[in-house]
Design goal:
30% helix, 3 domains, elongated, 321 residues, 17 strands, 5-stranded mixed sheet, nucleotide-binding, Ser_kin/Pase_Hpr-like_N_sf, alpha/beta, 8-stranded mixed sheet, transferase
């Protein structure tokens, strides 16, 4: 989402923002397009150059106390200049009373003034989390998202290849389902993508021959997760004897989701292959890589050293003459 309405802040219950409207009701349709917050203390001194109007503005105890030290005429002039910058909105924290002059100036300019009982630091942390989630780039994908040994694995593959059956087997082994069929993805940080289940089919899974089942009801709350960071994309493909599949794992493929590159594995499916075990091993191997151990690269390095030290080797290569 590129922007959110100021009025949406008043409807939030998840992040406990505790906001009430004081003035500027007609400006609730104004847009906030940045998750960063600004405390424009220098604005009260008349320095407007670095005021970011797309951000939510916060006045805390320091700003409000400073206003009371100014002559009324000067305070009115500064506030008029401040609200004339077409800012999104102003939030006054700590439950501090909003002076009538400030409320009247904001009302005249059509800028919402909100009040919260939170301390500035607490409110800024909460509202940043709210805005990061609301403004995050998002999309929907066809696949299955699981938490396997704490690793978020997104299963991709054409319809009917067995993604849901593999996911069901993993759940029965004690792993956790995040989403089946439709995965809603959001970029929550420059290099992090999180997935959740669609609200309509959350906790449900379609198994051919059985129909729709509810994983939460069947296996309990420990079998599901509401959200998980996607750390591996694993694509299931039909086995093709004419295709040379990766046998060493040295070259790491990437899959791009919302402009974030995520490690990708392509795993061929055929009768006799235990896909559940393969996925568990992929998760364990990923955890090992995070600890600095890359089995394939370490094996290749040992092999190269052995070749270089072999009798008859020249310049690091075997003598085949």
């Amino acid at each position: 989402m590129d922007a959110t309405r100021v009025g949406a802040l008043l409807d939030d219950r998840k992040f406990d923002l505790r906001l009430t409207l004081v003035a500027g009701k007609k400006g609730l349709s104004r847009k906030i397009s940045s998750s960063r917050i600004q405390k424009p203390g220098l604005v009260l001194a008349g320095f407007m150059e670095y005021l970011h109007k797309e951000r939510l503005q916060v006045f805390g105890n320091t700003e409000m106390s400073y206003l009371t030290t100014m002559p009324p005429e000067r305070a009115q002039e500064v506030l008029r200049q401040f609200f004339a910058q077409d800012i999104a909105c102003l939030v006054v924290t700590k439950g501090i009373g909003v002076p009538p002059a400030l409320a009247a100036t904001a009302e005249e300019a059509g800028v919402p003034v909100l009040q919260t009982t939170h301390l500035s630091s607490t409110f800024i942390e909460s509202v940043q989390n709210y805005l990061e989630e609301i403004l995050a780039a998002q999309a929907s994908m066809h696949g299955v998202l699981l938490d396997v040994f704490g690793v978020g694995i997104l299963l991709l593959g054409k319809s009917g290849i067995g993604k849901s059956e593999i996911a069901l087997d993993l759940v029965m082994r004690g792993h956790r389902l995040v989403a089946d069929d439709i995965v809603d993805v959001k970029r929550m940080a420059p290099e992090s993508v999180y997935g959740t289940g669609s609200e309509i089919i959350k906790h449900h899974m379609e198994v051919r021959g059985l129909g729709i089942i509810n994983i939460k009801d069947l296996f309990g709350v420990a079998a599901i997760r509401e959200r998980k960071k996607i750390e591996i994309v694993l694509e299931l493909v039909e086995w093709d004897p004419n295709v040379e599949y990766d046998r060493l794992g040295v070259e790491e493929k990437k899959f791009r989701i919302l402009d974030v590159e995520i490690p990708m594995l392509i795993v061929p499916v055929r009768p006799g292959r235990n896909m559940t075990t393969i996925i568990e091993v992929a998760a364990r191997n990923h955890l090992l890589k995070l600890q600095g151990h890359h089995s394939a690269k370490e094996f290749q390095e040992r092999l190269n050293r052995a070749i270089a030290l072999a009798p008859g080797a020249r310049g690091g290569e075997l003598d085949v003459e």
